[in-house]
Design goal:
The structure is a single chain. By secondary structure, this protein is an all-alpha fold. About 75% of the residues lie in helices and about 0% in strands. The longest helix is centred in the N-terminal third of the chain and has 23 residues.
Length: about 180
């Protein structure tokens, strides 16, 4: 059987989930959970909440898999939309009903201090400066893996390199970044 492209494989797995194929669902989870977890975590900013949310996201995917129309959307975009919308719903549910402006004035500011914001900004600039020392494709791979939640396999396919090469790129890039940041 010929190897399917990542997009075609994910679309096929979603179609098989619509037929209630549990093995396809397991494979879909294995292929996409890292990316969807990254999306959810970025929105919720709380690992425990994100772990709970990702379970609920996959329940929705299982229940709604028959609604996916191949060719209308990219399958990963469809999955990301479900994850994103669920996470945003959770953020909205956190917000208490407004008691008015007077009650808001009594709430302590738990945000970072101006000093911490300045430090964070400096740290971000240092990281960007160090990322710029990497080869462009290596820097993009690091961002993809550690900021966007792509799996090593997805990055290997994206950059058309073997999986072990991608692992080596990322390991060596992280070593260079650590050296740059501690210099």
């Amino acid at each position: 059987m010929p190897q399917q492209s990542g997009t075609a494989e994910i679309a096929d797995l979603i179609a098989r989930c619509a037929l209630r194929d549990r093995l396809a669902f397991r494979a879909l989870y294995q292929r996409t959970s890292a990316k969807l977890f990254g999306v959810v975590l970025r929105i919720l900013k709380n690992r425990a909440e994100a772990e709970e949310a990702i379970q609920e996201v996959y329940i929705k995917i299982w229940q709604r898999s028959d609604r996916y129309v191949d060719g209308q959307y990219s399958p990963i975009s469809w999955l990301v939309a479900i994850a994103r919308n669920h996470a945003l719903d959770m953020v909205r549910a956190r917000r208490p009903a407004g008691d008015g402006l007077d009650a808001a004035m009594e709430i302590a500011d738990t945000g970072p201090s101006p000093e911490r914001l300045a430090q964070s900004s400096e740290d971000g600039q240092r990281i960007e400066t160090c990322l710029a020392t990497l080869e462009p494709d290596r820097a993009e791979a690091v961002r993809g893996a550690y900021l966007d939640g792509y799996s090593y396999d997805e990055l290997a396919q994206r950059f058309s390199v073997p999986l072990n090469t991608m692992r080596t790129w990322l390991r060596r890039s992280l070593i260079k970044l650590r050296e740059c940041l501690t210099a």
